[in-house]
Design a protein that fits this description.
Number of helices: 10
Shape: elongated
């Protein structure tokens, strides 16, 4: 069985379908795109609603876009089938003011390149096409690898596997293996959020631009999730020295988990101990107490 068989079973003409295998060249965006597909579909769709001139021309004469994400070499992970609707032109000034694009810029997407004065914004509507296989269906992607979009009827894309669980928001790593950028805090999958809300502990923020660190503790409402959400919203969490830094350079990790019933005084003692051992108090670090 291959992709065109699935289209045929739903009475969709493969000649009207373009198949996209998204694999952003921006490292940070490439890392979070599966998370956007899982829990932020409006941002994922905004990412694909504008395209370069060549694909834009092909989309203007097609009826559907089958969206996949680069899963591993030679493989593509299914996100959804979108009906191509109306288009509207966007100038560069309009493009950079689209709210969803602004969010994507924060996640590492580069702005439009080249000399094009405008582009088309495509109205893409998600269809109910094997929606139960979102994040689970994997197809083989024909070579060459760099050709990231194809016409369905001119290619054979065999079904490689249908996973039991979605690979878009796969199980979270161990607590001592987590390493998030500031922008990633805003797009954490819901099941990851639930786990962080259970955990109390000592966390570490490293500013890669200054090579300095900050130690904090989380034991209030929603524990680590609540504290990190504060940073996601403000960039500094109310800390004086962090206010002076650019949060786009921050990395967030966990130094130690503590028992959910540990007294606040003991957690604060542990936090102070980590500050001493990692030398994060000013002038060597970003803690001011």
């Amino acid at each position: 069985m291959e992709l065109n068989d699935l289209l045929r079973d739903k009475e969709i003409d493969a000649r009207e379908v373009l198949v996209l295998r998204h694999r952003p060249t921006e490292p940070d965006l490439n890392k979070v795109l599966p998370l956007l597909a899982a829990d932020k579909p409006e941002l994922f769709n905004a990412y694909q609603q504008t395209q370069g001139a060549t694909l834009e021309k092909s989309m203007s004469s097609a009826s559907y876009v089958a969206s996949f994400i680069g899963h591993e070499p030679g493989k593509a992970l299914y996100v959804g089938l979108y009906k191509i609707g109306k288009t509207k032109p966007l100038t560069l000034a309009q493009y950079v003011k689209v709210p969803e694009k602004i969010e994507l810029f924060k996640l590492g997407m580069k702005g439009p390149s080249g000399t094009r004065p405008s582009c088309l914004w495509f109205d893409l509507k998600l269809m109910d096409f094997y929606s139960e296989w979102k994040g689970k269906l994997i197809v083989d992607w024909p070579p060459p690898e760099r050709s990231w979009w194809r016409r369905a009827h001119q290619n054979i894309m065999p079904v490689h596997a249908v996973l039991e669980d979605s690979a878009l928001d796969s199980a979270m790593k161990r607590w001592d293996e987590l390493d998030f950028s500031w922008s990633q805090l805003a797009v954490l999958p819901k099941r990851w959020q639930a786990k962080l809300a259970e955990w109390r502990g000592i966390y570490y923020i490293f500013d890669t631009s200054a090579a300095k660190g900050y130690v904090g503790s989380a034991y209030g409402a929603q524990n680590l999730l609540g504290r990190w959400r504060n940073y996601a919203a403000s960039g500094h969490g109310g800390n004086r020295l962090l206010r002076q830094r650019d949060p786009r350079h921050f990395r967030f990790t966990i130094l130690e988990l503590v028992a959910p019933n540990m007294e606040a005084d003991e957690i604060i003692r542990l936090e102070s101990s980590w500050k001493e051992r990692l030398h994060t108090r000013q002038p060597h670090g970003l803690n001011d107490n």
